[in-house]
Write a structure and sequence with these properties.
Elements lengths: L1 H24 L11 E3 L10 H10 L4 E3 L5 H7 L5 E6 L4 H4 L4 H17 L7 E7 L8 H22 L7 E3 L7 E2 L8 E2 L4 H14 L3 E3 L3 H7 L15 E2 L6 E2 L2 H15 L7 E6 L11 H16 L3 E2 L2 E2 L5 E3 L59 E4 L7 H13 L17 H15 L13 E4 L28 H16 L1
Parallel strand pairs: 1-2, 1-14, 2-3, 3-4, 4-5, 8-11, 11-14
Antiparallel strand pairs: 6-7, 9-10, 12-13, 15-16
Helix pairs in contact: 5-6, 6-7, 11-12
One 2-acetamido-2-deoxy-beta-D-glucopyranose (NAG) binds next to helix 10.
Organism: Riccia fluitans
Family: Belongs to the glycosyl hydrolase 17 family.
GO molecular function, one term: hydrolase activity, acting on glycosyl bonds
Length: 501
């Protein structure tokens, strides 16, 4: 035990020395230009391969990404690109990182999930931040993760220092907007009373380590959840509000949310603490307000606001760093018990990497220009499943078939106010059958007359409702084509090949 511990220590010391030598030779002058960052999640059936997503980032000059974990394939694709990265230890690791053996767990985590990627065969992933958990104090999360987040943060901070990375890699807990209160006047912002003393310790540790506070802001959710919320105030410059304490004028909910946080960190004793917006964006489907024109308008206004460097009333002329939520749609994301059908539609790109609407990501130019689409995407063949026009099925059975298809795919576009909700019943059934068929890699048994479906080659999409075509990725998730031993064997070797290539 002691010996192997010593050995591991000696090896890691040697690696560290090697790493520092590499650092010395690293081109310190390479500066990544500021600009918008994006959140890159992949809670998707048939997710795009990381190499394609990285090229998508590069072709659109996106130089900062925020991840939700540390998938080796994603980090390997980012190596050598210079793209600045926030990696994450997800909530389900907090009990380990913030528990009894948290110190040692954090040292291991940092070695395996951080330092390792700073030198991958001579190429480096430009990791600047480590997110510890995700919104651990939000709603129900607080019960499970609230008490673990700060110990986990401290252990990761110490492990980062132990690895000699202090001042280069910064640990922070991405927060939900409900950690601050004082909603009538932004200048009255304070940390939520039940976690106020905890937040004070957290921001104090940020001040010591040079980390930013990272907080998510969703004017879209204000408009959805707050009765009588003035719609124009979710956007920029359409509705004014005066802070009755400071007399400052606010023209957007975004500025108000930011200044609420500015006021809270000031009251906690750190008036100059850097604040980064971890997530901000607007979804395009699932409910009425989530549509293409609102998302285009909000995101373009936001990008212009950020690029202007005009700051907010409490921090005028200060650059705000933000990460758009999100890069891509994620069609198996959790819908919070069905209450949030828009959750799968936050992307500025559809899941296949095609842009949804014109948007100027630099914030400096024309908001009528289209971003670059992903290149080299492999689609399944042009085949769609529709409700069979050949006979009229029993409506009860048909209804069951639709429910089943939806329960095993993604029918959020069919929900009230969704992009496919205006279709007639037969088209709605086709939508459900098709997305289920695509989710299952167009296997015959997922669309046949027994299931009231028929395969067609003509795209059934309408002007507003897009029938997705599946992507030829994520092979290991495929169900067996036919229950024959041979095909299982083929599938098995196919999946095995992923381990070796
Ligand atoms: C990316 O930046 C380069 C160089 O500044 C510019 O020529 C190009 O048009 C930009 N591309 C996009 C999609 O903004
Ligand atoms: C590294 O991160 C992955 C993914 O979150 C996790 O499964 C793994 O346990 C981590 N490694 C250590 C040593 O904690
Ligand atoms: C949230 O978690 C913190 C830390 O465990 C705890 O002190 C606080 O009381 C919790 N808040 C609520 C509303 O349960
Ligand atoms: C920490 O806060 C103090 C007091 O506001 C400030 O003087 C100091 O510069 C801060 N340190 C960092 C690293 O920001
Ligand atoms: C805000 O404006 C009111 C009325 O114009 C004035 O009485 C008050 O002193 C002002 N407060 C501040 C903080 O400037
Ligand atoms: C999106 O919703 C807004 C109302 O919030 C409406 O005015 C607009 O026409 C809708 N756009 C589309 C493309 O449906
Ligand atoms: C912010 O910049 C504007 C325009 O450059 C200037 O008029 C204003 O005085 C500046 N405000 C502060 C507080 O520096
Ligand atoms: C439903 O809509 C489709 C396309 O919009 C149309 O071709 C079809 O005839 C309609 N079916 C019924 C039963 O109205
Ligand atoms: C049609 O679908 C049913 C139900 O999934 C399946 O049992 C049957 O084998 C399929 N038929 C063909 C010809 O694929």
């Amino acid at each position: 035990m002691t010996f192997s511990f010593w050995l591991i220590n000696a090896i890691s010391q040697a690696l560290l020395v090697g790493f520092l030598v590499c650092l010395a030779g690293f081109d310190g002058n390479r500066t990544v230009e500021a600009g918008i960052g994006v959140n890159w999640g992949d809670t998707a059936r048939q997710p795009l391969p990381p190499e394609i997503v990285v090229r998508l980032l590069q072709s659109n000059n996106i130089s900062r990404v925020k991840l939700f974990d540390t998938k080796p394939s994603v980090l390997e694709a980012l190596a050598g690109t210079g793209i600045e990265v926030m990696i994450a230890a997800p909530n389900n690791l907090l009990s380990r990182l913030g528990g009894a053996d948290g110190e040692a767990a954090a040292v291991n985590w940092v070695a395996q999930n951080l330092t390792k990627y700073l030198d991958l065969n001579g190429e480096s992933v430009n990791i600047k931040y480590v997110a510890v958990g995700n919104e651990p104090f939000w709603g129900e999360n607080n019960k499970t993760y609230g008490h673990l987040a700060f110990p986990a943060l401290t252990n990761i901070q110490n492990a980062i220092r132990g690895a000699g990375l202090e001042g280069r890699v910064f640990a922070t807990i991405p927060l939900s907007a409900d950690v601050v209160e004082g909603k009538l006047d932004p200048s009255a912002g304070v940390f939520r009373s039940d976690i106020a003393s905890l937040m004070k310790k957290i921001v104090s540790s940020y001040n010591r380590t040079g980390s930013p506070l990272v907080i998510n802001m969703y004017p879209f959710l204000s408009i959805v959840w707050t009765p009588h919320f003035p719609p124009g105030y979710a956007f920029f410059g359409e509705h004014d509000k005066t802070d009755s304490l400071s007399n400052l004028t606010y023209t957007s909910m975004f500025d108000e949310m930011f200044d609420l946080t500015v006021a809270a960190v000031k009251r906690a004793g750190f008036p100059r603490l850097k604040i980064i917006v971890g997530e901000v964006g607007w979804p395009t489907d699932g409910i009425r307000l989530a549509n293409l024109s609102n998302a285009q308008k909000f995101n373009n206004q936001l990008l212009k606001h950020l690029a202007s460097n005009s700051g907010t009333p409490l921090r005028p002329n200060v650059t705000i760093d933000a990460y758009l939520f999100s890069l891509l749609d994620e069609n198996v994301k959790d819908l919070l018990g069905g209450s949030a059908p828009y959750e799968r539609h936050w992307g500025i790109f559809y899941q296949d990497g095609t842009p949804k609407y014109p948007i100027d990501l630099s914030g400096h130019g024309e908001s009528s220009s289209w971003p670059q689409a992903a290149v080299g995407v492999k689609y399944l063949p042009r085949r769609y499943c529709i409700e069979t026009p050949l006979f009229a099925p029993d409506p009860v059975l048909l209804g069951k078939r639709i429910d089943f298809s939806c329960a095993h795919s993604d029918c959020t576009a069919l929900g009230e106010g969704g992009s496919c909700s205006p279709l007639n019943d037969s088209m709605k059934a086709s939508y459900a059958f098709n997305i289920y068929y695509q989710f299952n890699y167009q296997q015959d048994s997922y669309c046949n007359y027994t299931t009231f479906g028929a395969v067609v080659t003509e795209d059934p999409s309408t002007e507003t409702c897009k029938f997705p075509l599946g992507l030829d990725y994520g092979g290991c998730n495929r169900g067996p084509q036919v229950t024959m031993k041979l095909s299982l064997f083929v599938l098995f070797t196919f999946c095995l090949s992923f381990f070796f290539f």
